[in-house]
Write a structure and sequence with these properties.
Largest sheet: 9 strands, mixed
Strand order of the largest sheet: 5-4-6-7-1-8-13-12-11
Shape: globular
Number of helices: 17
Number of strands: 13
């Protein structure tokens, strides 16, 4: 009898120990964002209206119809006058880039943002255990990760991942890689470096679907330090609660809507198809379908399910709806019941408007994305972090708040993640010196005022020489 009692007691203790061990291991697998630093290029790289016009005029293959198209696109883009371009644009050599141009553009960002975020955390480069770099449209040999390792003299056993071709959603893919590594490695630091190289990617042709990219993308980047060290959880800025990736590459329309290719004259560029909004919507809906149960309260999910069921029952039973040819309005999930802040990719004004309408967001919710697009433009994969920095500079992020980050990228992909704010945040990052000026009274850029006369020109009488 005593033996059985001991056996039961031992079994119970072993069961409790196993549960505690699994719980303890899970705590070591958490992913915390310790700090991040967005890149703010020097003022001599600012791209105002006047110089934007000079660059466009240097593209000799464009005619009046293309000028009118670009004017309409830039006026409605939501991009302001203080965005940044690579130095090659100011040297007038965008049509003839060299390898050194691309490397210099990247290293200027690397040496600025990485050093700042390491210094702020008091970390030595040798303490970094994992390095993930994502730059979609430039690959060098040695790789960009190797260049960083060489410059900062990092350890020989550092785990390295160099991503390319992932598009504007790449930074969350990089964070997802780090999260996976954290599950099998305790007490480590990771550095994620996210940017895009514009120097080698200026399109010199006249295909409308490809010259559009010349208007939208701007220089930028971000360096992010993450850790799973339990002792640092209270020093962290954010805790990653979940991350969802949706990939529609198997669908031909989605795959081809956003792709690097050559035009009919063999000029390399980035093609943005008319089907892009539709492909983005499909990916967005599928992504929300997966992440919603993970981030929303049960009461909201139950309310939505009951509302959907009731709508279906009414459609079947009510003859009045059939007679009128109408149906009850579709029930909509209220994401604001589980999300405090929305960090939206600055792919363009239409992207921000579309997400805002789909999620039922207010102008207050959309302000960070709109202001980031206006001030920094579409900085590709790093744009999310500029939006997050705006929220921080405005002192919106308080302990316990939640943030939903949403990004889109070629492939076609929609990636999202759900962050919890660990402590009150009010640093300014790149917005520190100018946050008081935002939002401005007007987001209207002066392109139409300066170049609006192009809309009145007649293609049959227009002379390029007069414009030049």
């Amino acid at each position: 009898m005593e033996f059985l009692s001991l056996l039961y007691a031992f079994s119970a203790l072993y069961f409790i120990f196993t549960l505690w061990k699994r719980y303890d291991e899970k705590r070591d697998q958490q992913c915390y964002i310790l700090d991040y630093q967005c890149h703010k290029p020097t003022d001599d790289r600012k791209l105002d209206t006047q110089y934007s016009g000079e660059i466009i005029k240097r593209t000799k293959n464009l005619g009046l119809l293309e000028y009118q198209f670009l004017l309409k696109a830039i006026v409605s883009s939501g991009i302001g006058e203080q965005t940044y371009a690579p130095r090659i644009m100011f040297d007038g050599r965008e049509s003839y880039p060299t390898l050194e141009d691309s490397i210099t553009e990247m290293e200027e960002f690397f040496h600025d943002s990485i050093q700042k975020v390491l210094d702020r955390q008091g970390l030595s480069p040798s303490q970094i255990d994992v390095l993930v770099v994502n730059v979609s449209m430039f690959a060098s040999v040695p790789s960009l990760t190797s260049r960083i390792i060489n410059h900062y003299k990092m350890r020989e056993d550092i785990k390295v991942y160099n991503l390319s071709g992932m598009g504007c959603s790449a930074s969350l893919i990089s964070v997802g890689i780090v999260r996976s590594i954290f599950k099998s490695n305790k007490n480590i630091y990771a550095l994620v470096v996210t940017s895009e190289s514009l120097s080698p990617n200026w399109y010199t042709g006249n295909a409308r679907s490809m010259i559009l990219a010349n208007c939208l993308f701007r220089s930028g980047g971000c360096a992010i330090i993450l850790t799973n060290k339990r002792a640092l959880k209270n020093q962290a800025m954010f805790k990653l609660n979940c991350l969802v990736r949706t990939h529609h590459g198997a669908k031909d329309e989605s795959y081809g809507c956003c792709i690097q290719q050559e035009d009919e004259q063999g000029r390399l560029g980035f093609h943005l198809a008319k089907i892009l909004p539709k492909a983005a919507t499909r990916a967005f809906v599928d992504n929300l379908r997966e992440i919603s149960p993970k981030i929303l309260p049960i009461r909201e999910l139950v309310r939505f399910m009951l509302a959907t069921l009731l709508r279906k029952l009414r459609e079947k039973s009510s003859s009045s709806f059939k007679g009128l040819g109408t149906s009850p309005p579709k029930p909509v999930i209220d994401f604001k019941t589980g999300v405090d802040h929305f960090c939206i990719h600055t792919g363009g004004k239409a992207v921000i408007d579309g997400i805002g309408k789909s999620l039922g967001l207010t102008e207050h919710d959309l302000e960070p994305a709109r202001m980031t697009l206006h001030r920094f433009g579409n900085t590709s994969a790093s744009s999310l972090w500029y939006v997050l920095a705006y929220m921080e500079a405005k002192k919106r992020l308080k302990k316990g708040d939640t943030v939903l980050m949403i990004s889109f990228g070629a492939g076609f992909k929609c990636n999202s993640c759900f962050l919890e704010v660990v402590r009150d945040l009010e640093d300014g990052n790149v917005w520190k010196e100018e946050i008081a000026m935002y939002p401005p009274k007007s987001l209207t850029n002066p392109f139409m005022e300066k170049f609006g006369w192009l809309q009145q020109e007649d293609p049959s009488t227009f002379k390029l020489e007069d414009f030049l």
